[in-house]
Amino acid sequence: MEYSQLIKIIADILKNYDAENPIHKTFKAGIGPFGEPQIVSIISSRLNQADIPAKTRRTPDLDIQGDWAIEFKICRPFGDNGKEAENWTVNLLHPYPGNVSLIGDALKLLQLQNYSHKGLFIIGYEHSPAKISLDPIIASFELITQNVMKIKLGDRIEEKRIGLVHPEHQVVRCIGWELV
Q1: How many structural domains compose the chain?
Q2: FRET pair for 177, CA 20 to 30 Å: which of 31, 95, 104, 136?
Q3: Rg (CA), the chain
Q4: Is 158 helix (H, G, I), strand (E, B) or coil?
């Protein structure tokens, strides 16, 4: 399966799950407040329901058909309370091995031997229109990953879904790169 197909399927899964008005802990309804482990678990479950074998793991976050190893990060500039989140960019940009950033995850994926395909995946949330655009942080991620860390990324693939139910997380941007 092509990565562009997976990103489209996952974007649809997130939009459809959001339409069910899910509630995570004491936050407002919508998928936006869910944490990475919960979202990846939902994605895995829905992929399996669609006859696409998937399972969550420690590394990678998601194993699809034993062929794709995918690491996820959430990019959420605003919290459930409508205030700008502190340090929300660190999940993407911290360029050191052994940390929890998407760059750190890319370094971990490069060490995995048993997968034909490896992908990085951002689940990003914005307002409609965006109060803080994710574009600068995404471009920064690509520049640091490729030019500083010398990690080769395939072309950026993006699927956007609008009309989410949460008042702060109104748009989900599903952005991915295959490691080359």
Answers
A1: 1
A2: 31
A3: 15
A4: strand
- When pLDDT is averaged across residues 118-123 and rounded to a whole number, the result is 98
Q: What is the 3-state secondary structure (H, E, C) of 43-103?
A: HHHHHHHCCCCEEECCCCCEEECCCEEEEEEEECCECCCCCECCCCCHHHHCCCCCCCCHH
Average pLDDT of the chain?
96
Could you tell me the pLDDT band of residue 98, with boundaries at 50, 70 and 90? confident
Question: Which amino acid belongs to residue 175?
Answer: I
Dihedral angle computed from the Cα positions of residues 36, 132, 105 and 163, in that order, rounded to the nearest 10 degrees = 40
Structure confidence at residue 99 (pLDDT): 77
Q: Which helix (H) or strand (E) holds 56?
A: strand 54-56
User: Residue 64 has which token pair?
Assistant: 């699809």
Q: Which of 124, 173, 175 is nearest to 4 (CA)?
A: 175
Tokens of 102: 């998407």
Residue 27 in tokens: 């936050």
Residue 37, CA atoms < 13 Å, CB-side half-sphere:
3
Containing structural domain, residue 49: 3-178
Of the candidates 103, 63, 81, 76, the one whose C-alpha atom is nearest the C-alpha of residue 173 is 76
Q: What is the mean pLDDT of residues 79-88?
A: 92
Token pair in block for residue 149? 């860390």
Bridge partners, 72 (sequence order): 121
